Amino acid sequence: MTDPRLTRLAASLPATVPFVGPETMEREAGEAFRARLGANESVFGPSPKAVAAMEKAAAESWKYGDSLSHDLRHAIAAYHDVDPAHVLVGEGIDGILGNLVRLTVAEGGAVVTSAGAYPTFNYHVTGFGGTLHKVPFRGDHEDPDALVDKAVETGAKLVYISNPDNPMGSWHDGATVAAMLDRLPDTCLLVLDEAYADFAPEEAIPDIAPTDTRVIRTRTFSKAYGLAGARVGYAIGPVDLIAAFDRVRNHFGMTRVSQDGAVAALADRDWLEKVCRDVERSKARMSEIAAGNGLRALPSATNFVAIDCGRDGGFAREVMLALIARGVFVRMPGVSPLDRCIRITCGTDGDMDVLAETLPLALEDAARNVR
Amino acid sequence: MTDPRLTRLAASLPATVPFVGPETMEREAGEAFRARLGANESVFGPSPKAVAAMEKAAAESWKYGDSLSHDLRHAIAAYHDVDPAHVLVGEGIDGILGNLVRLTVAEGGAVVTSAGAYPTFNYHVTGFGGTLHKVPFRGDHEDPDALVDKAVETGAKLVYISNPDNPMGSWHDGATVAAMLDRLPDTCLLVLDEAYADFAPEEAIPDIAPTDTRVIRTRTFSKAYGLAGARVGYAIGPVDLIAAFDRVRNHFGMTRVSQDGAVAALADRDWLEKVCRDVERSKARMSEIAAGNGLRALPSATNFVAIDCGRDGGFAREVMLALIARGVFVRMPGVSPLDRCIRITCGTDGDMDVLAETLPLALEDAARNVR
To answer: For residue A347, which of A268, A286, A297 has the smallest C-alpha distance?
Structure first.
């Protein structure tokens, strides 16, 4: 039953959640996964220096975190060579996207994204009563021209693109993304989600001034920095928009441990480079494993690989479920034709051994279940 | 300048923030506080067992936290002897209050609280476009009858009370709070903020069934458990209302370190008892210090003490500023006549020595500045 005190909007919201977590699946299965390769976490872990900083901060957790995340914000600003007034720190990109939607999308307001793109963004748009308009991927890439066209057509407040993208791992060069801005109406903001930028080739990163009022870019410590469980994301955008978050954000919402961990993680460039090498090795191994099973691994500029299972979404789903049943946590895209793929996060050599062992068996299971 | 893409509501919001953090003040002053007694943190720290759990979890921070906070939620449910379906875990009471307001208050919706009560609750109400109706304290207590009267009069969706209360430290017996429910309209929810309940006498805690649909109670790990910087709060309420949070909350918003720290903190009852003894010793010492300076410490069922400075708000404000200038972080109530007091958090013996040293000097400063 719905609580009678909910607002009309709240009462209308679906009870579905963007993602079921692996712990939930493990509790249901009654056993732990052998390989945790479904949420694009970094199995290579955070920098040992970040871990040390977090261990040290634990005993200081009686103090609220710094409401301005001053040290972290300034470190991020220095790293990107922008003024700190352009930088917002938040509780992961998820938290930042929620507040961004809250700030810009009134009930009924139009928002544009790609069909099959980040579900949590859609969750926030729906949650604040916005209307989603979805554009198909084209050739396993998000389609910049179609996104802008749809934004113009619908009078959207926000248009979302991830580059490199999730769930396919593809990317556009930076110039293509930057060119979107020139066709964007003044009343529309580009949300450029660069969660996977740390893994991407340099040419994938657009050269956009932080003062550019047409775009907000999001980054995270959840992927390459290996701190998904610490909930630290940030945005770079125009000063007025960044300042507006102060009107709605949870000012003391960052944990002290996470603030200190992120500062240390950002400073350890060697670790980031090592992680990127580990990711490349895992991607190469995944391509081999896929090929050895007659499947194709799509090119990826991220820490995961979409593996084309060669048939339709029903078959790929059976492959995914069979891998999960055999203790390998993976996920898959939600819409056709992307859903001919399963999405596997890069892992350790041991994780890849488990994948090499289980994938042929999962393919057999799937072939049996889908005639 | 306001970003032109903000919603009408967002553009109308004030740029003020509920609290300026002590780190911000330290950066402005160019030096660290000698005593940090302004935010009702627990200077006695978290349980060493909680610290150990957090240290252990740090290296596991590459994994997202459990989106259901299963272990923590079940531990809280067991502690309160309620079904876990009645328990919501969130990013501090602040985060929970924000989502509660979002779920229940549409633009223009009436909300009732006490003048001078928790500013962050008011911040959320304003932030979602609600209209605040404030009832005065009576005799340094929140006024249950007047709160309910105002809720009836305004058709409020929410009525907020803290028990024990912040900022005065006073409390009502549980029966008085429970009696509010009998006069509450069906369309109104009582928000019973029990952030300080762990310090309160047993008779201050109302006997209310978790199934009671008229009330949601909030608790926190930020006060007695000494984990303000870990951002863990929880609510106990009717199942339908608790479930509704799943429609809007940031599902992976809890950090893994905080989840594990809170589970360990909750289990260490000895530490909680020790902290409560430390708090009592500090309160006794603060009463002595106040009396030695011709001031009166109000009775407190919390981990802070409101000290009546014996004159008006302007004078108390000068005392507060003089303490801050002398390196003692304290705060004060925001409205008359509560603002004749300054509010000082319980501290270590060393903190109390600093207070004993600086308070007479601050009173001299204030007397000089206010003629």
So the answer is: A286
Q: Across the interface, do A231 and B253 touch by the CB < 8 Å criterion?
A: yes
Which CATH architecture does the domain made up of B8-45+270-369 adopt? Alpha-Beta Complex (3.90)
| B351 chain-A contacts, CB cut-off 8 A | none
Determine the residue of chain A that is closest to B71 in CA distance. Answer: A23
The residues of chain B scoring below 70 in pLDDT are 1
Q: Please report the pLDDT score of residue A1 as a whole number.
A: 67
The tens digit of pLDDT for each residue in A52-99 reads 999 999 999 999 999 999 999 999 999 999 999 999 999 999 999 999
Q: B42 touching A, CB under 8 A? A: yes
Touching check for B36 and chain A: CB below 8 Å? yes
Q: Nearest 5°: CA angle at A280, between A278 and A282?
A: 70
Number of Cα atoms under 13 Å in the Cβ half of residue B151: 26
Tell me how far apart the alpha carbons of residues A233 and A222 are, in angstroms, rounded to a whole number: 8
pLDDT 10s digits, A108-136: 999 999 999 999 999 999 999 999 999 99
Chain B interface includes A106 (CB < 8 A)? yes
CA–CA dist A346, B9 (Å, integer):
43
Average pLDDT of chain A?
97
Per-residue pLDDT at A371 exceeds 80: no
Do A213 and B3 count as a contact with CB atoms less than 8 A apart? yes
Residues 6+ apart with CB under 8 A from A118: A160, A162, A166, A193
Share of chain A above pLDDT 70, in %: 100
Quote the tokens at residue A40: 């694009």
State ipTM.
0.97
Q: Is B17 within 8 Å of chain A by CB?
A: yes
Query: What pLDDT does B2 receive?
Result: 81
**Which is it for strands B131-135 and B110-114: parallel, antiparallel or unpaired?**
parallel
Residue B231 to residue A252, Cβ atoms within 8 A:
yes
- Which of A17, A227, A252, A331 is best to mutate for the B interface (most B CBs within 10 A)? A252
- Provide the b/e sequence for B236-275 (b: ≥16 CB within 10 Å): bbbeebbbbbebbbbbbbbbbbbbbbbbbbbbbeebbeeb
Could you tell me the two tokens for B111?
């909300």
Looking at residue A3, its pLDDT comes to: 87
Q: Where along chain A do its domains lie?
A: 18-45+270-369, 48-267
Give the CATH architecture of domain B48-268.
3-Layer(aba) Sandwich (3.40)
| CATH superfamily of the domain spanning A18-45+270-369 | Aspartate Aminotransferase, domain 1 (3.90.1150.10)
Q: CA of A261 to nearest chain B CA: how many angstroms apart?
A: 9
Paired residues of B304 in beta bridges? B345
pLDDT grade, residue A2 (50/70/90)? confident
Alpha-carbon distance A90 to B326, whole Å? 33
